[in-house]
Each structure stands twice: as C-alpha cells, then as structure tokens.
Specification:
It is built from six helices and nine strands, in the order E-H-E-E-E-E-E-H-E-H-H-E-H-E-H. The chain has a seven-stranded mixed beta sheet with strand order 4-3-2-7-8-1-9, sandwiched between helices. It has a single domain (about 10-160), classed as 3-Layer(aba) Sandwich (Rossmann fold). The protein starts with 7 loop residues before the first strand and ends with a helix. The chain is an alpha/beta fold.
C-alpha cells in the first residue's frame, strides 16, 4: 500500500499542544520560498465537550466547517463526512495541479478505519508528494500500524519540521544532480 521511497512525517503532539500553529508557520515559510503546499489545517478545538472545529485549505485559503449540527436528541455536533469528502476531492485536484507537500488535518478515528483522509494520504504518496500528518500521541501506535511503520516521527515543533523538510530538499537536489550527470554521460 505505501511506497518506502515516499516521505511521510508524523508531527506527534500531546493533548496540551496545538500542531496547527506549527503547521501554519511552516506553510507560510514554504509559500515564501515559492513552494506549493496543499492540504487542510485545522483551527478550533473541543471546548467544554462541544466541538468547535473548522479548517482551512492551505492551497486556496478556503474555510471548511467540518462539523454539522447533530440531531435534536443528541448532544453537540458531529463530523460531516460529506464535507470531508468534498475537501478530500479538492485536495486531490490540487495535488494533480502540482504540489510540493501534502498536509493532512489529523490522523483520527476516520483515518484509522481507512476512511476520512486516508485515501488522500495514499494518493499523495502515489504521486511522490511528501506528507505531514499531525498525530495525537495516544494514536501513534495506531498510526504506525496504518502506515506500516514507514514514517519519520517528529515532535510538535517547528524546528523539527523544518529540519525534516530541509533534509528532503537536500536529498532531492542530490538526486537531480546525479540524474543530470547520468544524462550527460549518455
């Protein structure tokens, strides 16, 4: 299912940490370098048991409300799978238009069960696009099982994310130079 040559990073965070700020700062850096990150970054949280969750499509700036009002006999709000599917479709199209990195909102219960944005992760890897996924620490074992162990574990820290990304960029430059040298020798 997953290609060992593709690069996947899990940005592992504890309950008191918010990976969204780390990701948004990283996205801003990539954009200033002329790169095209694609994906979904969450902003919002659970407040006193009530989900206040929205996300932003980082490649378009579009706001996506991921929850719908639950039925009157239930409490709170629940994830709107149709809205999530629409966001997944928009991100797939954005990858097709050229992406340097995919950022997936979170690895949650939906992805663990092969739904949600799970297929998007596979799609990006198939297109040889590196992927960053915030993973809550309590789900990290599930993430490792899902990704078949092929990922880099990063702390929820901008410096760690930057170091990982810079390592990818350096490796890709080396591959490009080697490829060009081979072409010259033909």
């Amino acid at each position: 299912m997953f290609d060992a040559q593709c690069d996947v990073a899990a940005l592992v965070y504890e309950a008191h940490q918010q990976p969204d700020g780390v990701l948004l700062d990283f996205v801003a850096r990539l954009k200033t370098e002329g790169l095209r990150p694609v994906g979904l970054v969450q902003f919002g949280h659970h407040n006193a048991g009530v989900a206040e969750l929205a996300a932003m499509m980082i490649h378009s700036g579009e706001r996506v409300d991921l929850f719908q009002e639950a039925a009157a006999y239930t409490q709170g709000r629940r994830l709107d799978l149709d809205k999530l599917a629409a966001a997944r479709g928009a991100m797939t199209a954005a990858i097709d238009q050229g992406a340097d990195l995919l950022i997936v909102n979170r690895f949650g219960r939906q992805e663990q069960q092969g739904r949600g944005l799970a297929r998007l992760i596979e799609y990006a890897l198939g297109a040889d696009v590196p992927v960053v996924v915030p993973v809550p620490a309590f789900r990290f074992d599930d993430w490792i099982a899902y990704i078949e162990g092929m990922c880099v574990k990063l702390p929820c820290d901008g410096d760690a994310l930057t170091t990982w990304w810079d390592g990818l960029a350096q490796r890709d430059r080396t591959r490009h130079v080697q490829h060009n040298a081979c072409e010259v020798l033909k």
